[in-house]
Amino acid sequence: MRRFHALITALVALLVLASAAQAKPRSTSVRTPQGTITTTTLPGSGGARKLLFKYGPVRIHPGQNTISITPTSLRPPKGGWITSFHPNLTYTNGKVPPVDVIHLHHAVWLINRPGDAYRPTWAAGEEKTIFRTPKGFGWHFKTSDQWLLNHMIHNLFPTPTSVYITWEMTFIPDGTPAAKGMKEVKTQWLDVEGGKAYPVFDVLQGTGHGGQYTFPDDNPNAYPDGNQRNRWVVDHDATLVGTAGHLHPGGLWTDLKLTRGDRTVELFRSKAKYFEPAGAVSWDVAMTATPKNWRVAVKKGDVLSVSGTYNSARASWYESMAIMPVAITTKPAGGADPLMTNVAVAGKITHGHLAENDHHGGEPGSLANAAKLANGPAENTVAIKDFLFKQGDLSMPGAKGLPPVIPAGQPLTFVNDDAGRDIFHTITACKQPCNGAAGIAFPLANAGSGPLGFDSGELGFGPAAFTAASNRKTWSTPTDLGAGTYTYFCRIHPFMRGSFRVTG
Ligand SMILES: [Cu+2]
User: Fold this and answer.
1) Ligand 1 centre and the CA of 33: distance in Å?
2) What is the torsion angle, in degrees rounded to the nearest 10, for the CA atoms of residue 93, residue 99, residue 105 and residue 107?
3) How many other β-carbons are positioned within 10 Å of the β-carbon of residue 275?
4) Distance (Å) from CA 484 to ligand 1 centroid
5) 424 Cα–ligand 1 center, Å
6) What's the CA-to-centroid distance between 439 and ligand 1, angstroms?
């Protein structure tokens, strides 16, 4: 009897060991010309797996801030359901670059399904929101779909490097137990500048009300051609199951609203939760997303609209964004009637503070205090070459570092001689002395509104259809500047600082 017992115990132990071995996640990697795909099984999930895509290495040029669009073969190997999307950026050694050094301005994955239009489906900004569909919903992938990756990686320094764009997905292959009963969602892109390939607007310091500026509401000329780019008319009865907003530093929240007949109601406010000690001024932020049980029934003909609200008291925010991709079912799947129920509940952030946002900047460094410098030469032009302002650069010792002098009423013209190398620069006013170290929260475009808050735009050239560049290489200062010493920085390469002096 005792021997029998021992045998049973041994058998049970073996079985436990065997099932433990089976329950271990297994990973396999496939290398492709565009990067690697690593598949990891998720035991006990009914067939789901994690797919990690590493796109690259992508060569990053000195100071680059350009947009690239390429087809990508980094997709699931077979048909199935995608239920989460987690984007990131890494060096080739796997480390995540500090955001004040290399910065994922944006990446957008566009899907072209034969018979449908190209559809932006997932996106990443430096807030690195993680998208997850509620249980039972997913994006359905077919191997006949084509994927395009639109990315803009920004190098804040002249040092070239290499990076991977990475994205991790939860994937449920068709035909597995977990795929049973899944409901399909698509992404409906809602963007205050919808339809533009570089969808940005400026928030000028001091505009709006009470220190806040909402686009498009606070700009009567937001849509000069009459095309209300922030709206989408719902084209089929459906259920909204999730959304989160995308903003830039300075952003406070995005709002998603629904209009039916003469009523407009809030559906969700995605709030920016800043970890940044200085407040709403940097990428040290996470956005709130809708909770798992958020379901909103929408009808054909309803109008969805989006707006973005920024802090306009602290600084100007050039080339800002406000986007809310919404996961919408292809067929109705229940949900609350937003005219009967308040669906605008509080959201949840999708991650905490990220270590790559630890260098806030502003500490005293080696740059000059321009107000204490003697007059430099009288000039009407300042060339920018090799990331240096040729006269009045705050990093330059001696005569070259002295502020060029212009008489009141005369412009000073800047010429970007790096433009031929696809390097864009800006001349953006910041409050004197503007000589702290560059970081994610310094410098700010905080010289005030009106002529004091000048900004050149990105001096440089790019393709007509989509570029951050202004497609010119020169810019002149406003002619109504009063006597005084002015400091400025380059928004693209914030270590670049300069000054000039207006004499009365
Ligand atoms: Cu620059």
Assistant:
1) 33
2) 40
3) 15
4) 24
5) 6
6) 15
Ligand 1 mean position to 124 CA, how many Å?
24
Between the CA of 190 and the centroid of ligand 1 the distance, in Å, is 31
**How far is C-alpha 298 from the geometric centre of its chain's CA atoms?**
28
d(CA 105, CA 154): 6
Contact between 215 and 203 under an 8 Å Cβ cutoff? The reply is yes
Per residue in 317-365, pLDDT (tens digit) is: 999 999 999 999 999 999 999 999 999 999 999 999 999 999 999 999 8
The reply to whether the predicted model has a pTM over 0.70 is yes
Model confidence over 380-439: pLDDT tens digits?
A: 999 999 999 999 999 999 999 999 999 999 999 999 999 999 999 999 999 999 999 999
Span from the CA of 69 to the centroid of ligand 1 (angstroms): 23
The stretch 440-449 carries a mean pLDDT of 95
Tell me which H or E stretch contains 5.
helix 2-23
Distance CA 57, CA 75 (A): 17
CB 197 within 8 A of CB 189: no
Q: What is the model's pLDDT at position 9?
A: 59
The C-alpha angle with vertex 269 and arms to 266 and 271, in degrees rounded to 5, equals: 165
Half-sphere exposure of 443 (CA within 13 A, CB side): 28
CA of 426 to the centre of ligand 1 (A): 6
Q: Residues of 232-267 as b/e, b for ≥16 C-beta within 10 angstroms?
A: bebeeebbbbbbbbbbbbbbbbbbbbbebeeeebeb
The rounded Å distance from CA 499 to ligand 1 centre is 15
Which residues lie below 8 Å from residue 159, measured CB to CB, with a gap of 6+?
Answer: 62
Residue 331: CB atoms within 10 A of its CB come to: 10
CA of 273 to the centre of ligand 1 (A): 29
Q: How confident is the model at residue 117 (pLDDT cuts 50, 70, 90)?
A: confident
Rounded to the nearest angstrom, the distance between the alpha carbon of 292 and the centre of ligand 1 is: 42
What separation in Å is there between the alpha carbon of 157 and the centre of ligand 1?
Answer: 9
